[in-house]
Amino acid sequence: MSREDHIVRGFKATLLARAIYMISSALLMFVLARYLLDPDGYGTLYWVIGILAMIRLVADLGIGKSAARYLSEYREDDPGQIPHLLRSTITFKIVIMALVGYLLLVFHEQLAAALGRPDAAPFLAAGVLYIAVFSFSTFTEVAFQGFNHLPYSAAVRAISGLSRLVFAVGFVLMGLGALGAFFGYVVGYALSAAVGLAVLYYAFYAQYDAAETHEEGLTRRMIEYSVPLTATRSANVIDKQVDTVLVGVILTPTAVAFYTLGKQITDFVLAPAESLGFTISPNFGEQKASNQLEQARQIYETALTNTMMVYIPAAAGLVIVADPFIPMVIGAEYAGAVPVLQVLAAFIILQAITNLTSDSLDYLGRARHRAMAKGGTAVANFLLNLVLIPTIGVVGAAIATVATHSVYVAVNLYIVHLELELRLKRLARSIGVICVITGIMAGAVLLVTPLVSSLAMLAGAIALGAITWAVLVVASGLVDPNEVRAAIT
What we know:
Layout: H1 3-36, H2 39-60, H3 63-77, H4 82-114, H5 121-146, H6 150-203, H7 218-250, H8 253-289, H9 293-329, H10 337-363, H11 367-392, H12 394-420, H13 424-448, H14 455-475, H15 481-488
Helix pairs in contact: 1-6, 1-8, 2-4, 2-5, 2-6, 2-7, 2-8, 3-4, 3-5, 3-7, 4-5, 5-6, 7-8, 7-11, 7-12, 8-9, 8-10, 8-12, 9-10, 9-13, 9-14, 10-12, 11-12, 13-14
């Protein structure tokens, strides 16, 4: 199988699984927000998850990503070290998680009181389980990525999404409220972690004959490489979650619900770009090791152009239809999320580039530089949130996210250019054509949006935009229909 075929196969599997994950997440969001929880309960649930995401940084560090990098390298160079790598990684994770879990269990009430939300104490106590199962679920995903067996990563993600939907809704229907929904998350990640660890053991660990000795310094190098990854991941999580946490501390749980809803919708839209970035990133490490940078450049440029061809029009369309969409689909009580989503539409374009680029930089050995960029923009995001949330409200958090992420994306693209020598004029020409197509598509949708008064009419407006986009990208030569059919089949 050629490298291109392998990438397409991995992308299809990853996209299918993430489609299952995102559809189940969308259903969970819809059912919880519209039928089962009020805005306060919905906001509290995701505010606590944001708090735990930041605590989880200490429990995870960057060891999983670092292990994936070395798994990718040693499965080719010295397979006998694979069992040693997996054992040392899992041991390290268990020790750190045990310490963090103990401290959280002991001090959960004090933490809830310090954040001004004593009612969140039961969530934080249960967070000990959440952190453990989420950590191992995500570890198995990145480990399979390191082995370049993406269908397994995809399966773990799909299981977690479906399980969360079933158990979160089930527990809320049993009368457990927002806390029940939280336990649904715990059970969902526990099931996906159990499946992932079982596959990792039987399909990989048990299939390698361990070398008699563990290569001297290998564990040390893996831990050292985890340091910049930890910094990057910490900055990334803080960048994504600190705004939600600050909205909850400075404003109200209802404001958190508005902000969370906007971010969740952007996450659903971004699933394909995340899938593509997750799929292609291991190939960059292999190509750099074999000095095939021309091929790596071709893959990245093609992926970036195709990603922008989808996400620039998608962002424009979201700005236009956000107002009828949220009140009609989620409920009029969530209308406060409309301006948040409209601002975050710009973030969709930025995050699509990030999803395509960030993992690739790790595999290219540029984790330290990415960590520095992410750390700086995370600090800037925190400071901007402190200024904008009290003065503008929840929309200020969205503005801070877009402003600081723009800088991070620019730095990432510069580093990729240094590594791969991107053909900038060619890329600029393609993106210029995409912007023209977007303008025409947006004009067509704007003409009919004022007439929208039902879900059927809203779907018709979206379909009009999609058809206009499809006709124009084919007419412009950006897409060859024959290549699309070949990729699908």
